[in-house]
TrEMBL record:
Homodimer. Within each dimer, one monomer is responsible for RNA recognition and catalysis, while the other monomer binds to the replacement base PreQ1. Pathway: tRNA modification; tRNA-queuosine biosynthesis. Keywords: Glycosyltransferase, Metal-binding, Queuosine biosynthesis, Transferase, tRNA processing, Zinc. Its EC number is 2.4.2.29. It catalyses: 7-aminomethyl-7-carbaguanine + guanosine(34) in tRNA = 7-aminomethyl-7-carbaguanosine(34) in tRNA + guanine. Belongs to the queuine tRNA-ribosyltransferase family. GO terms for cellular component: cytosol. GO terms for molecular function: metal ion binding; tRNA-guanosine(34) queuine transglycosylase activity. This is Queuine tRNA-ribosyltransferase. The gene is tgt. Transmembrane segments: none annotated. InterPro entries: ArchSynthase1/Queuine_TRR, TGT, TGT-like_sf, tRNA_ribo_trans-like. Its cofactor is Zn(2+).
Length: 383
């Protein structure tokens, strides 16, 4: 079912179209993160339509723990459950297993760990991750992998990556089996593999070449934005992305700031996701074309302007900085909601502008203008 069409390129930057059973995704795209089948900050799927969201991202581990993937399946899958008719990507749960579990044992068969909610014992391996994601019936499922620390030693990373490759083969086999079953909700579920290797470019390149041969629906670069510098991240992308298939979508997991996204696009990335816009919004930090603003600042107390005068989001069309600041100070949920709506719109709209710039062949100029605007805002104390 999946079909990735490369529309144009500028240097390594790609402008593509990815057809799925739940609709066509225009890339580069930013996926709006709704970990437990909801965007934090009281933003509904009706809102997501209004602010131009193409893909929603939910989390396998969290939904497995609560309400339970079998419950979601009984209710018709995630699309039905959360009333969303566009593509959904579910991450495999691997990252949460490694970041949330205090006690865990990694074995060849998978990982044994305790739930972060009530401590009960859970086992998750490649087959379990695929089964949970099949029950959720997302458009795109991510392969189960280990995300080694960016400061892990070389020997550990090499062994971990080799196991991740073995796990990927098991994921692929299990997904083929699940997609053939009569009671599977989404028999066209797609599988993306994940490149790992910490900051060792030779391990990453070798891994990229190995997984590229497996002819998956798409490829992610994982294990970045976990503590290494932005420069290190860009260096890894420069080295690795050329070894991933250009005729498949490429996804940089958990990244990032608007500047990170512009740099990622330039290096050939199609898909992005990050909690920044919603998390920052909940704390009154909002993105504009001139950098980030902190609406708690006293200087906005009597400011009747919208967050960003150039912005057409529902928040900027109707409410002032002063009003939103008042809501935030009063701990009124509407304040968080309006900030999150604005930030997600800002990201979605920036991706639209990136696609337009690539279509017009002037992405390099667009990127330069954008970065200069962010820098100017930072120097002028826009925060």
């Amino acid at each position: 079912m999946a079909e990735y069409k490369l529309i144009t390129t500028e240097g390594r930057a790609k402008r593509g179209e990815f057809k799925t059973v739940h609709g066509t995704i225009q890339t580069p795209v930013f996926m709006n993160v709704g970990t437990i089948a909801a965007i934090k900050g009281a933003v509904s799927t009706v809102d997501l339509h209004e602010i131009g969201t193409q893909v929603e991202l939910s989390n396998t581990y969290h939904l497995h723990v609560r309400p339970g993937d079998k419950v979601v399946k009984q209710l018709g899958g995630l699309h039905e459950f959360m009333n969303w008719d566009r593509p959904i990507l579910t991450d495999s749960g691997g990252f949460q297993v490694f970041s949330l579990a205090k006690l865990r044992k990694i074995k060849e068969e998978g990982v044994y760990f305790n739930s972060h909610i009530d401590g009960h014992k859970i086992f998750m391996g490649p087959e379990q991750s695929m089964q949970i994601q099949s029950n959720l019936a997302s458009t795109i499922a991510m392969a189960f992998d280990e995300c080694p620390s960016s400061v892990a030693d070389r020997d550990y990373v090499q062994k971990s990556v080799a196991r991740t490759t073995r796990w990927l083969k098991r994921c692929k086999d299990e997904m083929a089996r699940l997609n053939s079953l009569p009671d599977t909700i989404n028999k066209n579920q797609l599988l993306f593999g994940i490149n790992q290797g910490a900051v060792y470019e030779d391990i990453r390149i070798e891994h990229a070449q190995a997984i590229a041969e497996m002819d998956l629906d798409g490829y992610a670069v994982g294990g970045l934005a976990v503590g290494e510098s932005h420069e290190e991240m860009y260096r890894i992308l420069d080295e690795v992305v050329p070894h991933l298939p250009q005729n498949k979508p490429t996804y940089l997991m958990g990244v990032g700031t608007p500047a990170n996204i512009l740099e990622g696009v330039e290096r050939g990335i199609d898909f992005f996701d990050c909690v920044y816009p919603s998390r920052n919004g909940r704390h009154g930090h909002v993105y504009t074309n001139h950098g980030k603003m902190n609406l708690f600042n006293a200087k906005y107390e009597l400011d009747s302007k919208p967050i960003d005068e150039e912005c057409q989001c529902p928040t900027c069309r109707h409410y002032s900085r002063a009003y939103i600041r008042h809501l935030l100070k009063a701990k009124e949920m509407l304040g968080m909601r309006l900030c999150v709506l604005h930030n997600l719109y800002f990201y979605n709209h920036m991706m639209e502008e990136i696609r337009d710039a690539l279509d017009a062949g002037n992405f390099a100029a667009y990127k330069k203008m954008r970065l200069e605007g962010f820098e100017e805002g930072r120097i002028n104390g826009n925060r």
